[in-house]
């Protein structure tokens, strides 16, 4: 019978348990995207805390394009040695680390915006107000090469794999979304065409890194917006990725550029779920269906809280892994606590106050530290 603390493998990557730290944009890199002492500390605490595999925060692949303020970067070889130090630290604690690589496009949330931001079409992004420059085929080829080089650098730096961020409204997600992609060439129209750039990114990375380096992807279950990616289309894309050899698929959801998504609490980091276990793991239905239809390992992210809820999903579905974000912000050692006693409830209440703090830290922990200082 499957257990959350099973030892498993994903394309040769050994996982000591079924828990992933879902990507959190800590916002602690310097202006050029280089890692800081604060970031070394964050990742060391996560590794010490027992999580089997860590997804890094979104890592930018272009020097002049910043998806989120304070995002890490991997746009040239100057990053390799510092990331080698990071991966060595994490590996000392028998944890894995997978670099999440991305181009933000018009969904970028940073004051350091480049003068030219690409998108699949020149359609205004609803949350940022940015109208991107529609990509030419030459631009697309250039960006695919940037993804490929980023992945090669990640491998050279000792990362255990890379994850393509194709969710939440960033560029690859926009290509999948009819609202933002009204192209009439081979990158627009049918879902097969809208997914083409993602398949090409995967294919070129695989050629570069070889067959034994894990390549994962994060994708929306659906966009939850008018003219957005539907759940049926999402499954179609995942089938295509499975056919070409993707190593694991992380299921999330929601295009957070849509005001409707935010107003109706349909985003990837939903509030008001702590009071009811039925509200947890809110993308599970889609992930369960997907896991029944393809053989690729599925990582369920979004609202995972109580260990008994995840145990039930694991035992009664084909879902393989679980991503946790906010609970590990609050308690980086939560997995070690669960090793000792699986009845411990997480302290995180999904208030999202951490997203308004420097470095994405739990406000409860800040208050505790303030009290200690005051005393």
From TrEMBL:
Domain NADH:flavin oxidoreductase/NADH oxidase N-terminal per the UniProt entry, residue ranges: 4-335
InterPro entries (UniProt xref): Aldolase_TIM, NADH_flavin_oxidoreductase, OxRdtase_FMN_N
Keywords: Flavoprotein, Oxidoreductase
Keyword flag GTP-binding: no
Signal peptide extent: none
Name of the protein described by the UniProt record: NADH:flavin oxidoreductase
Naturally occurring in which organism (per UniProt): Candidatus Clostridium helianthi
């Amino acid at each position: 019978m499957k257990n959350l603390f099973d030892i498993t493998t994903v394309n040769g990557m050994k996982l000591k348990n079924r828990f992933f730290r879902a990507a959190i944009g800590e916002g602690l890199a310097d202006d050029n995207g280089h890692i800081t002492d604060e970031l070394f500390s964050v990742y060391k605490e996560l590794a010490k805390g027992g999580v089997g595999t860590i997804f890094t925060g979104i890592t930018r692949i272009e020097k002049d394009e910043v998806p989120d303020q304070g995002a890490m970067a991997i746009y040239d070889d100057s990053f390799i040695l510092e990331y080698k130090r990071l991966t060595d630290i994490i590996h000392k604690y028998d944890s894995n680390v997978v670099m999440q690589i991305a181009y933000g496009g018009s969904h970028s949330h940073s004051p350091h915006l480049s003068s030219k931001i690409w998108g699949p079409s020149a359609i205004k992004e609803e949350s940022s107000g940015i109208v991107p420059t529609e990509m030419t085929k030459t631009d697309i080829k250039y960006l695919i090469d940037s993804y490929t080089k980023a992945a090669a650098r990640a491998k050279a730096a000792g990362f255990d794999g890379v994850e393509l961020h194709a969710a939440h409204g960033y560029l690859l997600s926009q290509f999948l979304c009819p609202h933002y992609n009204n192209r009439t060439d081979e990158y627009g129209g049918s879902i097969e065409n809208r997914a083409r750039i993602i398949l090409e990114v995967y294919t070129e990375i695989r050629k570069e890194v070889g067959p034994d380096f894990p390549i994962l992807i994060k994708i929306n279950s659906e966009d939850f917006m008018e003219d957005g990616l539907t759940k049926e289309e999402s499954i179609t894309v995942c089938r295509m990725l499975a056919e070409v050899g993707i190593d694991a698929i992380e299921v999330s959801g929601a295009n957070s550029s849509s005001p409707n998504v935010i107003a109706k609490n349909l985003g990837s980091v939903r509030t008001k779920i702590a009071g009811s276990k039925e509200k947890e793991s809110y993308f599970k239905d889609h992930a369960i269906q997907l896991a029944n239809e393809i053989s690729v390992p599925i990582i369920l992210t979004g609202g995972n809280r109580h260990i008994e809820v995840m145990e039930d999903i694991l035992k009664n579905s084909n879902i393989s892994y679980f991503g946790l974000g906010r609970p590990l912000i609050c308690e980086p050692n939560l997995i070690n606590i669960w090793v000792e006693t699986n009845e411990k409830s997480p302290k995180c209440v999904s208030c999202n106050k951490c997203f308004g703090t420097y470095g994405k830290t739990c406000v409860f922990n800040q208050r505790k530290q303030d009290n200690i200082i005051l005393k």
